[in-house]
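Objective 1b: paired records.
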Amino acid sequence: MGGKRFMRLTRLRLKPAARITGKCIALLAALSACTGIAPHDKNAKLVQGPPIADVQTPFDQALTCLNGKISPRLRFAVGIIPDLTGREQYNDGGAGKFVSQGAGEVVQSALFKAGVSLVNRRDQMVSTNEASWGIRTMRQQVPADFYVSGSINSLDFIPGGATYAVIGGIGPRYRQNRILIALDLSVTNATTGQIVANIPLQKQIFADEWGITGARFAGNTLVDADAGVQQREPLNFALRQVLYLATFELLTQLMPVRQYAECRSLIDDGAGEVTGPGTTGEFIRKYEAAKARAEERRKQALEAVAAAEAREAEAQDSETAEAAPAKPQPAAEPASEAQPAAGTTAAAPAADPPATPVPVVAEPATPARAVKAAARAEQDAVTVPAAPADADPAPEAVPRLEKAATTTRPAPSDASPEAADTATPEPPDPKRGLPVLPPAAAGREA
């Protein structure tokens, strides 16, 4: 009797659980149909995501701005840029590297955007095979003048922070963490092996997560809910941006400041900046300071010329007024003219008074002489100190990255200030210092 009663009670208790289980199974079946789970004997429907797009970075405009500013006679190549971080990740699907192994191809794309003459040294399999087959000789290969090499050598995980607050079973949460990635790239003269440009760069990869969680009873039923959002910068896309900026920096270190200043202004400081010593950031700061000093001296020279002209005009006016002769007064006629007596000789007329001599005024100094002196003083004052001798590569070893021939600066003349404006500044050498700017040329550069 007691056993039968226990079995009836058990059936009564299991009926609500069975109903709930059946509802859950029906719900899972409906969700599986919505999520696209296909039967085992049919192909699953492919999902079409966002459209394909070309890769764009905040540094593309600055790189394309260099197109045409580098001589096409100089040929560049890309050497080995390996991943030396030693970091690997393991998961259920296998193992892999954290960082992309194709950094060399990324630098090659950046050089191509800059419009330089580029030769392929990344894959020599085709050329080697054709040479071994006898259909081509390696002498037909075009030699490279410069090549880019380096490594990705740092990948550090920076500990982050988190916070949450729960009141009455409901509350928000937030946490963040960062990854630090760094690399070093160099440009080497392929003829001599001398390193002519170098740049180390780093970037922090940011990731954060926020959400809200809650657990409350609705009658006798516990309702637990959790929602959140997690976001992180793409690691390899961030690495591409670092490589693009490094390529731009390497190219501009070998160019005169005035030739790439406009292109560098296209880089937003929020995307990346290079301001350390020995970089283009330092070169541009010195260049702008030299231009400001030259412009100030030019203004002072023009003010001195204007003051000299004013004094000269005032002196000429005063001397002209003093040198003008007094206007003679007409003589009064006698009341009656006496006739000379017979046999007498008429008296000789009185001699005219001597004319007042006009003083000879010496020609004052011309304003052109003042301009000449100011221009010479200014050219001596705007010269920027040169870099140490050991940092200057040999001229025959490192060709100038200039499209035009080296310009010359005309000697100062005694012409007007407008003629002095035509002076062309000497192109600067980043290893030797900044150019000597004439007064008017500094104004146009600004």
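Objective 1b, second protein:
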Amino acid sequence: MEEKVVAVILVGGPTEGTTFRPLSFNTQKPLFPIAGHPMIHHQISACKTIPNLVQIFLIGLYEERELALYVSSISNELKVPVRYLKEDKPLGSAGGLYHFRDLIMEDEPVSAESANMFGELVADPNTKELLHYTEKPETFVSELINCGIYVFTPDIFSAIQGVFANREDKGTTSRLSGYESFHSATRVLPADFVRLDQDILSPLAGKKQLYTYETLDFWEQIKTPGMSLKCSGLYLAQYRHSTPHLLASGDGKKNATVVGDVYIHPSAKVHSTAKVGPNVSISANVRIGPGVRLLNCIILDEVEIQENALVMHAIVGWKSSVGKWSRADGDYNSKLGVTILGESVTVEDEVVVINCIVLPNKVLDVSMQEEIIL
């Protein structure tokens, strides 16, 4: 009899950090669109290819209402049960896994954690045994990094239980991630807070219990909006091989000129004289006017880009408008990075916005450069 498999994706939760603002004001980070689909959609779709998969769990601290709608939709789309499990408090990457162990143990687990940091590891070149693991080392250890995707047997729960048993009553003081630090003002780990990397992987390295799988596929952190733009480009490039029907095409005659990898939602209206790409994602109900030039950008729902405007190295938020002959431009290497327009931002005609972050509901009637518009 074939063993059944479940997948677990750790989606984290909201913090007081500002790295993903202003985009996180309007949507939970896992639901932010990358290459035309919510960020978490790509991980769930990848899990769908796992043989004998019967269930996908999402574990995190986000409020359930918004995620519940998405979970219902993706379950129907993929014909695989997807369920969101909300933690009452931060438990760490391993603590959350252990907390819901009874649900997960209904099937053999496969865990995929959305990495928000990376650790370097050393593996035996022949057997691929994990020999050494260090979370965010201060000096160079290896070119191999932990992508945060794990395949476990049920013995993982015994290993987590062992951490609980060995932890001193006063807790463990150690370096925390920004998310963990926010929820642990004293920087002392609660008794039920367990991390897969420092508490499980590091102690088990070199004991013939952990093995690595090396992949040449891309891996990208998504801590800031600028990183999401890079990641969108990576997924669009992947579409060429995995799902080419999602990519747009056009030669400037009946449809807009499309250069490179571009996603255009079916409901979007793009004028035939516009030029789009490479690395452009256009969401639902967007209107792109005559002569518009778009490259390396994400255009979110219900945006209007008026005639002869230029948008590049930028993310344009929901219901925003870029006026005629205006320009929204960014630079990955600048202090503020790519230009970000929050929800319902209006850039009036003939205004240039370069390397700026603009919070929602602002009207820009003069040109700006290297500014945060509050």
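The first strand starts at residue 5 and ends at 12. Helices lie at 39-47, 64-78, 92-99, 101-104, 155-166, 178-182, 196-204, 225-242.
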